[in-house]
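Sequence only, no structure available. Ideas?
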Amino acid sequence: MKFTLSWLKEHLDTNASLTDIEEALTRVGLEVEGVENPGEKLNGFRVARVLTAERHPQADKLQVLTVDTGEQALTVVCGAPNARAGLVGVLGTPGAVVPANGMALKVAAVRGVESNGMMCSTRELELGDDHDGIIELPADAPVGTAFADYAELNDPVFDISITPNRQDCMGVRGIARDLAAAGIGTLKPLDAEPVQGEGTGPEVKIEAPEGCPAYYGQTVRGVTNGASPEWMQRRLKAIGQRPISALVDITNYVMIDLGRPLHVYDKAKLSGALTVRKARAGEQVLALNEKTYTLDETITVIADDNGVHDIGGIMGGEDTGVSDATTDVVIECAFFDPDHIARAGQKLMLTSDARSRFERGVDPAFLEDGIAIATRLVTRLCGGKASEVTRAGTLPRVGVTTGYDPKLAETLGGLAVPAARQVAILESLGFTVQPLDGNGDPVELADGFDALRVTAPSWRRDVDGPADLVEEVIRIEGIDHVPSTPLSRLPGVARPTATPEQKLERRLRRTAAARGLNEAVTWSFVSEGQAAPFGGGAWTLANPISEDMKVMRPSLLPGLLGAAERNLKRGAASVRLFELGRRYLADSAKNLDERVTLGVLLAGAKTPRGWQGGKAQPFTAFDAKAEALALLEAAGAPVANLQVMGEAGEVWHPGQSATLRLGPKTVLAAFGMVHPSVLKAFDLDGDVAAVELYLDALPAKRGGSGFMRTAYTPPALQAVTRDFAFLVPDALAAGDLVRAVKGADKAAIVDARLFDLFTGAGVPEGQKSLAIEVTLQPGEKSFTDEELKAVADKVVAAAAKLGAALRG
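Reply:
I predicted one. Tokens follow.
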């Protein structure tokens, strides 16, 4: 929600400083996202008069001007075709910065003639699109005045964030009311004197009261539509609204000023009565945004005998929109049901300023005043004669009445506020307050009271109970006045609160960061196209906030691939990302199944090019494997017992990917190179390595569940190593042989590792030589020769089962 300071002062009588207003807005719950003064960027630009204009001696298209700045006459070189003696325009003096391009003006020679600044166009000052000539101001514009002051552009613009429950602050007046209650001035009375009409108003029928319970309309004949007045355009432009015409600008102005959306029809384009009804299946309307929408029976529309002309409460139709040729108009001021508006807007994926207000809930009691204010503006700015007001339908009941005990401010809100002060706060916000005695009978405030009967104003549909009244009192009194009270705690040493799962996630994050990976946090939702390479999403949103966030991610890799693509296209040479999050799958019963997963992605150059290493080296599947093993080890997985098996799936490059498993069924991780077709879908070039660790598949820790580490007890006796060299078939994986050797005697063998691979002289065709170092750890006494021989025999026997023979 944006508004200017001068606009706020139309409703609030205050002398408070800009800083005081900012602080008060935040204090009452209206978060200030920013305050910008558009006049600040026009420092150094002033109103100036051209005294003389002569052709430049060295350029036919340039003129040498003598410009009166109010203090002195300056020479300025100008190329504008409309520059002439007597013209009053805007001069940028040396030192000023042109808003459109950031150029700092200075004294400079232009084709041999010294120029002391620049005469400016509206585009250069970012005040419009005109660049055909310099700005022409009225002849009586005060020469020497700062242009920002002359054009009334020194008017700070507030940008505040409105929470969904504060529908009353979707207009400037509602914000002014809150500030007045907070002591920042006095709320001015609202002039809502109705325009006396002549003749019957427009014919209106309501066939769908559930979507639009009440509809007021008034005809104004003989209007002249043109540009809106400068003061209205200036305020609309300041908040980012584009002025269109007086009639359209009036509706936008009232909507932002008072939070009351309106619509204006060209009466000549209507046929028959305006009918509020449900759309028919397949019915279409060309909206004011020049898009055609197909409607259904759930959407409330405004139609006549020729068809639909308005998506009720969301956007009007192009066919009945006003133009410069419009002479007769129908002004619509209606109340649309918030729930119907929200559902229709979501279904059509159509947003508008009107929808944002109606779906929050506008003031239903303001229809009378709203149409009076709008009609008065139309007749004042566009002329014409108004008809009587047509009032169709029934306004919904408003103003919830609640019993309220003032002591709740302290017991529920934590701040003791005098009861009389609470009454004053509530009344300043528009609540009706009736003091009650102990029997529940009305009494006078001055006589003392035991409780209050409070009726919420019609513009506060969010207030429904004593807790809401406490919130109103506390936010106006000042939440910063609520004392900080520490929570009570049990005596003794505090116990750890982190769960084993949380500890595991912290440990993995630290390990990944220590290995040079950067943590990424991507959306849990991806597009259908991004989910397709990963088997598609098991869960699709019916009403996503955008088509790019429609499917709950089946893998962490789509988000990481998208992040890598953005980084690489912005010049990153190497991308090393990890993310710890959830995948969303479907279990056997088709219910949502969340799986905790750690994803790693390596893209770009592993090592940069250099005079020693030559070309930049890319990441490989072995880099992904190293990350997978390191992270699994940090997670406490039995890394030494893992098997490298098979390919990881269709997402992965065949022959350059695999899985890490505990046995044939328990998959702990998938790693390798991402398939080129997947990279193409994400617009990525080059090789990309990735890992997915499935943390839900990690085996549970055996033993104690306490937080203390087990005492470190190093073995008393020295370990013994023995080397074995085997001749094995070429097809046998070295890891399988190492695993078999390590399992030959689990009591004595504590480790086994491959230290040599040899093929060549002395090794038969179709075989290879693998040398393995076996570490034996004695327990209570040293190994005897017989025990060592027995272990060696077990190692040879275990290897023989895989087709390995001890090499002679």
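The CA atoms of residues 13 and 241 lie 25 Å apart.
Hope that gets you unstuck.
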